[in-house]
């Protein structure tokens, strides 16, 4: 693709903004299309804040179907399911279950590790233009703790693990992370991975937005909703929006779960489903003992990350369609688990609740690159790893759109009709 070509990036979340930046740096002219008045206010707003480049194993794995049945009957279980009269829900579940085997999980994990490493390198490059301090980036490391001996042993025996990890037993977890002192004696153990980071995704979006707006090749940001992709003679000819028709040489779809319906207007089937997740953001005072390390409670699927002067707690997977309403029972459950796990970490009475829809594929791998239409491109389906993969997937997209060879085979990352 020649320099100076015009590209419309649809989506102003962390993936869309990163895509816009890397395309600008690649020599293209960019218009950003975001339906909300402010960027980064959907799934990017108050996510877990973890940049887990090495902890990228997809949810679909051997043994997960059995665990799902157990979670559905647990009071504070990480999964909730509401059946819908929507074939896309049932098809996604069927495909997810098909991917729940050790071989597929291992192959996709290997691909996601490549994308994670590219993302880490890409963020380092971006640091030259966007200081890490602008979004509370911190090299915290990641500690995954296990409550059961069975889960801990399975993690230790998993092939292809990071050789830099440190294995901790029971009470040793509190020595590396004092915030766990209250529950350390009840833990089977933990695995610590250095080099993982935490940051404020929304602050990253706002800071990157400023850099994009100041870029000499950036044309404009249109705060309007895309409604329809029109195709003529095998190419995308225009996008219908609430503000009228817009055209460009190329188009990038990076609008989270909304990408699914928009792609359907061009007869493209994106195998995505919204996994509703929740977070609590609690202020940290001088009297509190917050975690310095990013912590994942494996069995409870709960993340704890100190971001600036706040504690971010993220958890839950609700398969309830595109319902973004905050379920107060789920929030109460999260608050109860946080108080039990880290009772002195933050002021939970002042915690603010949030819910967002994570656009997930059945196998856990995002979809990046070309479509059957030569001027329509995808950067979608990142699930709960949108912040982690944003810079790497944007860099990969820019490479592909310039007609260059990618740094690794796309394989699971490519769109398949």
UniProtKB/TrEMBL annotation:
It comes from the Bacteria. Pfam families: DAO (PF01266). Residues 7-399 form the FAD dependent oxidoreductase domain. One of its GO terms (cellular component) is plasma membrane. Keywords: Membrane, Oxidoreductase, Transmembrane, Transmembrane helix. GO terms for biological process: D-alanine catabolic process. The chain crosses the membrane at residues 7-24. One of its GO terms (molecular function) is D-amino-acid dehydrogenase activity. PANTHER family: D-AMINO ACID DEHYDROGENASE, SARCOSINE DEHYDROGENASE-RELATED. Belongs to the DadA oxidoreductase family. NCBIfam families: PRK00711.1. This is FAD-dependent oxidoreductase. It comes from Massilia eburnea.
């Amino acid at each position: 693709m020649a320099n100076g070509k015009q590209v419309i990036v649809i989506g102003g979340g962390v993936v869309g903004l990163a895509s816009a930046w890397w395309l600008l740096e690649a020599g293209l002219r960019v218009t950003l299309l975001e339906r909300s008045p402010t960027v980064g206010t959907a799934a990017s707003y108050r996510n877990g804040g973890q940049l887990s480049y090495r902890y990228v194993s997809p949810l679909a794995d051997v043994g997960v179907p059995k665990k799902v049945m157990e979670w559905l009957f647990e009071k504070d279980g990480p999964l909730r399911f509401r059946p819908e009269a929507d074939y896309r829900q049932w098809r996604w579940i069927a495909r997810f279950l098909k991917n729940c085997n050790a071989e597929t999980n291992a192959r996709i994990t290997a691909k996601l590790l490549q994308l994670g490493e590219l993302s880490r390198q890409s963020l380092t490059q971006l640091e030259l233009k966007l200081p890490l301090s602008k979004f509370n980036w911190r090299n915290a490391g990641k500690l995954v703790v296990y409550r059961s001996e069975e889960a801990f042993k399975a993690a230790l025996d998993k092939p292809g693990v990071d050789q830099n990890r440190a294995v901790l037993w029971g009470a040793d977890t509190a020595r590396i992370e004092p915030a766990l002192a209250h529950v350390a004696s009840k833990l089977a153990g933990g695995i610590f991975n250095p080099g993982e980071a935490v940051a404020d995704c929304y602050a990253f979006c706002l800071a990157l937005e400023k850099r994009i707006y100041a870029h000499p090749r950036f044309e404009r940001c249109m705060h309007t909703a895309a409604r329809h992709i029109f195709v003529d003679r095998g190419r995308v000819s225009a996008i219908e929006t609430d503000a009228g028709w817009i055209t460009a040489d190329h188009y990038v779809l990076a609008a989270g779960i909304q990408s699914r319906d928009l792609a359907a207007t061009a007869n493209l089937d994106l195998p995505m489903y919204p996994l509703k997740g929740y977070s609590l953001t609690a202020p940290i005072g001088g009297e509190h003992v917050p975690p310095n390390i990013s912590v994942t409670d494996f069995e409870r699927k709960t993340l704890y990350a100190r971001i600036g002067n706040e504690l971010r707690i993220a958890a839950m997977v609700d398969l309830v369609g595109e319902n973004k309403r905050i379920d107060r029972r789920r929030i109460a459950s999260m608050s109860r688990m946080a108080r039990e796990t880290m009772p002195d970490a933050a002021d939970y009475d002042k915690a603010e609740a949030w819910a967002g829809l994570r656009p997930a594929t059945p196998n856990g791998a995002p979809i990046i690159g070309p479509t059957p239409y030569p001027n329509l491109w995808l950067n979608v389906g990142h699930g709960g790893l949108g912040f982690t993969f944003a810079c790497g997937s944007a860099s990969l997209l820019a490479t592909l759109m310039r007609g260059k060879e990618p740094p690794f085979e796309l394989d699971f990352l490519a769109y398949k009709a």
